[in-house]
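step 3/5: co-fold with coenzyme A
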Amino acid sequence: MTVLTTVRLRLEPVSDRHVDGLDAMNQIPEVMRYIGGQPATREQTMSMIARARRCWEAWGTGWWAFIEPTADRLVGAGCIQYARREAEPPADLASLQCNPLEIGWRLHPDYWHQGLATEAARAMAAFAFAQLAAPELIAIRHPDNLASARVMGRLGMQYRGPETWYGTITAAHVLTRGDWQRYGPLDAITADGASVN
Ligand SMILES: CC(C)(COP(=O)(O)OP(=O)(O)OC[C@H]1O[C@@H](n2cnc3c(N)ncnc32)[C@H](O)[C@@H]1OP(=O)(O)O)[C@@H](O)C(=O)NCCC(=O)NCCS
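step 4/5: write tokens
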């Protein structure tokens, strides 16, 4: 499990240490507006952490908690994970590895409009292209989620059109390896390879 470091953030593979911070964020309606539409319960957040741990074990990638290092406060979360078409995850996570890798993000509203999602996204993208040899990354969003579309644009992603992912119609964006190499900030990341439990 790989810890990533940016100028302002430490990205830690999610663990039980992050339950309180993730729970506080996931209970805010405006955070969840375009991600399921409903605040998540603490039990749902705990299940999400357990699932993320299984993804890290199966794939060597998954969800990170974004930590503001000086305050040790949870700022948000994001992922590099294998996308799926279906609403529910399969029992065999390895079966998803033929699908494209997806990048995603969410922030606690206290940290919106500071460039932190884009900063974290660049580090996660660098990890995907360098460590996982991803040929491309996709990002998907609710068609009305324009703030997320702007993060995708800043990352250099191109809009590809409506596509079905997670059992619903989404707006899909793609970042090819070639575009990342041409435009991506190659200094966006230091991956120290440290493990956290
Ligand atoms: C999607 C989401 C993460 C975007 O957050 P955001 O704060 O708009 O995005 P960033 O952190 O990249 O910040 C960019 C903004 O900060 C501004 N900014 C301020 N200081 C900055 C700095 N030092 N560096 C870069 N940008 C800075 C930028 O100008 C930009 O402004 P804009 O919002 O007017 O375009 C946020 O809206 C969110 O968490 N939404 C709920 C969850 C969600 O929908 N997730 C996505 C699912 S697809």
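step 5/5: annotate
Residues 31, 34-35, 105-107, 112-118, 141, 145, 147-148, 150-151 surround coenzyme A (CB under 6 Å).
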